[in-house]
Design a protein that fits this description.
It contains 14 helices and 19 strands. With 484 residues, it is α+β, with helices and mostly antiparallel strands. The strands form five sheets. The chain has a seven-stranded mixed beta sheet with strand order 7-11-19-18-15-12-14. β8 and β9 form a beta hairpin. It starts with a strand and ends with a helix. It comes from Aspergillus chevalieri (Eurotium chevalieri).
């Protein structure tokens, strides 16, 4: 029998939420990439140090926990990742779906496009989309499918959320491309092979007696998810038609909004403390306001704005600088505002609220308290718990990937040739011109949830969101009014 290294999944990886989410992440290049070069470089990455953990197989142990089973070595029979390729003779621009692919625009635009529209190009019958596709097969964690055209390349990565979050994905892509260009010295050490950097956080802060009490933990452990499921079913029955759409916001629009926000905050700010909100703060605030304006809830209805954030930088002693942690290390900041307040106040006010909630809730003390509550069975904390039990009646949940800089990922060393003549091409060689995310859930998906994908080479901001069909119609009308 082959010797394998067996490692339990880390505390933030093996969660009920991560088990139920499979992801696909498609990079669209306006260049022709060499699939074999991509494959060989990723194989080589898994031979460097402890990066071999990426090729582990997922297994359930006797107690129901997930484990990594890492083969002693990878070969053709048991590779570190699955890799498939398709070569098409015609240009991508000639494909029927090409006309629906999102492109950068002069005005804010909602596209009549979803990731499923390119299934004809990317779908495989054995594409993994649920936990069982990993634990009951000899499938590695990463599934990669490459489709080449004379004018473009599509690279699709698929994995279960137990493997990594957005920051882990960024670290993986940076390490892969470092090997691709022959710079193995730039591959960071793999952090957290055996040791769980977050394992002991639950023991640090003191909690109230009622949170620590066994009966309260049990109630919160089961009541939260149960009420969440009831809430989702209620929304799905009342509003069965929903859509997953992509949105492009020109950089000039976001820059103007941020400049205006900074000026407004400077007027009301404290002396000696210059205000600051980032472009992404302003973008998320503006987008949340758009959603609320289109849904038109009662003015006194509480709305919880949830914003995922990376906690690696909060604990530099646990995540040493210069290392790569491929795993899940994120939490959610929240801000609760009434519908009326969100519509009456300017974008600057909302952006500052988001910024302050993020700064306050990602402090060490707050993160430790949050983690402790999670470990006690409250799978969601603070704003999310509040919304489950009725303290907040509406969620807007954002996962902001801008810091991962996915549009800056450089695969130029794998470029065979530039795509078909394209005078409008502005991005750098080997960098993605479009990124198409897709998520598969074991349960009905929450409404009003989405991601800021990032900022492309032209300065355009890209979002992908999940909203009711009628809300999308209202948003389209609202964005159309900005063209006048």
């Amino acid at each position: 029998m082959e010797l394998q290294t067996v490692i339990p999944l880390h505390s933030k990886d093996d969660t009920w939420m991560n088990r139920g989410i499979a992801l696909e992440f498609t990079l669209h290049f306006d260049d022709v990439l060499d699939p074999e070069h991509l494959r060989r470089s990723l194989e080589r990455l898994m031979e460097i140090g402890e990066w071999k953990k990426l090729g582990a197989r997922l297994r359930l142990n006797s107690t129901g926990g997930l484990e990594y089973h890492i083969p002693k070595q990878y070969d053709a029979k048991r590779p570190g990742f699955t890799f498939s390729t398709v070569k098409r003779d015609g240009c991508l621009n000639d494909e029927p779906c090409a006309s629906t692919l999102p492109r950068g625009t002069e005005f804010p635009t909602v596209f009549p496009f979803s990731a499923s529209d390119i299934d004809g190009l990317l779908y495989k019958s054995d594409s993994p989309r649920k936990l069982e596709d990993w634990i009951y097969t000899d499938r590695p964690q990463l599934d990669i499918h490459v489709v080449t055209f004379p004018d473009a390349t599509l690279v699709k990565l698929a994995w279960l959320h137990t493997l990594m979050d957005a920051s882990g994905r960024a670290s993986l892509l940076k390490a892969w491309t470092a090997v691709l260009r022959g710079r193995e010295d730039e591959v960071p050490p793999f952090h957290g092979f055996f040791e769980d950097p977050l394992a002991d956080l639950d023991a640090r802060p003191p909690l109230e007696w009622f949170v620590r009490s066994r009966w309260m933990v049990k109630i919160l452990q089961w009541l939260g998810p149960l009420l969440l499921i009831i809430r989702i079913i209620w929304e799905m029955v009342g509003y069965p038609k929903y859509e997953h759409r992509m949105v492009c916001i020109p950089g000039s629009v976001v820059s103007e909004m941020r400049e205006a926000a900074m000026e407004e905050l400077a007027v009301g700010g404290d002396e000696g403390k210059p205000p600051f909100v980032s472009e992404s703060d302003v973008l998320v605030a503006w987008w949340a306001q758009c959603i609320v304006r289109c849904i038109q809830p009662p003015v006194d209805k509480p709305i919880t704005l949830l914003n995922n954030f990376n906690i690696r930088s909060t604990f530099p002693e646990r995540f040493p600088q210069g290392t790569a942690y491929i795993g899940n290390a994120w939490l959610t900041a929240h801000a609760v505002l009434s519908s009326g307040l969100m519509l009456e106040r300017p974008i600057s006010y909302l952006a500052s609220k988001l910024r302050h909630s993020l700064l306050n809730q990602r402090s060490k003390q707050q993160v430790q308290a949050y983690m402790a509550v999670q470990e006690e069975g409250m799978n969601k904390a603070r704003g999310e718990i509040a919304s489950w039990i009725g303290l907040s009646d509406m969620l807007i949940h954002c996962s902001n990937w801008h810091q991962a800089r996915f549009f800056n990922v450089d695969f130029s060393s794998a470029v065979v040739s530039s795509g078909c003549a394209n005078e409008t091409k502005s991005h750098s060689l080997g960098k993605p011109s479009l990124i198409i995310p897709r998520t598969f859930y074991r349960w009905p998906m929450l409404l009003n949830l989405g991601s800021v994908i990032g900022k492309d080479a032209d300065g355009n901001w890209w979002l992908v969101w999940h909203l009711k069909k009628g809300v999308w119609r209202e948003i389209e009308r609202q964005l159309a009014s900005m063209r006048r």
